Structures
1.
Amino acid sequence: MTIFLLPEAPVFPNPELADPNGLLAIGGDLSTERLISAYKSGIFPWYNDLPILWWCPPKRPIIFPRLFRLSRSLYQIMKKDVFKVTFDEDFYGVIEKCASIKRKDSNGTWITAEMKEAYIKLYSLGFAHSVEVWKDDKLVGGLYGVSIGKAFFGESMFSLFSNASKVALACLVEFIIKNSFYFIDCQITNEHLLKMGAVEIPRNVFLKILNEATSKNFIIKKWSCESLSIKETAYFLKEKLIKRS
């Protein structure tokens, strides 16, 4: 088993050389050039303390947009239109809450101060985006991630109100369907994502789809929510999603 030490140049070894758990390399930095190179290669940073660890798991959980699972309960919640959703209006607030809110079975956060700085820079350049969910003018849920071409790489989400993060994801799915994105990369598999429609695919298959998706031209520096309301999003998704047993 070999774990590669990254050079100063923003380049990576072949992701197929990652160890059985998906760890490929250590070191480097979180410069914009290195992060973009990583995502385009199917690699992402995930660590608590230095050095930086770079991963490309052997099985990749992704959500193909039309296979997103809109549960009956989520559909009913969205029809009530109790939330307001925005895109790219409070990226800093979303990443701060993703970093600070404790999660089940977790004693801390992997979103370090250096990571926040790096992704805020990506946001300022139009590569990172956020979805915000508001209730009574308070930020109660959201997610953020990186977009290159027609691929979206989900980084983290949070919820301070029941179903708020699910609503954020549903509204993101609407956006990527309308803009012909290939997938949402979920990076690490968990039961919650599988219930929302994520499927695991082998790394070699993911890398082929990724290469095609990132080669497409799609640059909108600031995204916007196109629906008149979350209720409209619910109706749109019910019509467009592929039904599965």
Note: The first strand starts at residue 4 and ends at 5.
2.
Amino acid sequence: MAAKIGSGLNYAFTDLLKDIGGWLLLGVGLAGAISALVPDGLLASIFEHQNSSLLIMLLVSVPLYMCASASTPIAASLVLKGLSPGAALVFLLAGPATNAATITVIARHWGRAATIIYLAVITVCSVAFGWMVNQLYDWADLDITRWLSQATDEGTEWWGVLCAMVLLGLIFRAFLTRETLPHHNERS
């Protein structure tokens, strides 16, 4: 049992962190750029009509090759700049599921008809769920930007910085460990 736990922790802090760490850093970097460069409320004024924002985010997310680790912080920063939560959900659902690599693999293994059905289901479901999220937020009169201002007022900034530094250190360690040491499954 201890060996399995040790193996799982080793995988989590080396291979898994290396696989998603680069994507996460890319997503956080792009989210930071969006936060710094896009004026507050700009996306709300551009995407006044929420249904069109769902379709636009669908068109933006489909060709992107980005995993969920990168798209999550990007979606969060877009929402904080005025994008509707439903449009962000469309970006989160459709982007990682419909990138060119995924579509190519599905087409190769299941054929053209299955690929078209796959894309249609992803498209319809992501837009439908995005629309439902927007309806829920409107009905409940929810505003994510109010939550952010409340969270920053609580004075726990140091904890977030500490956690970010630990995560950054673990990601860099995973990259260095994997390149300098033999893989744990390889035999000498």
Note: Residues 184-188 have pLDDT under 50 and may be disordered.
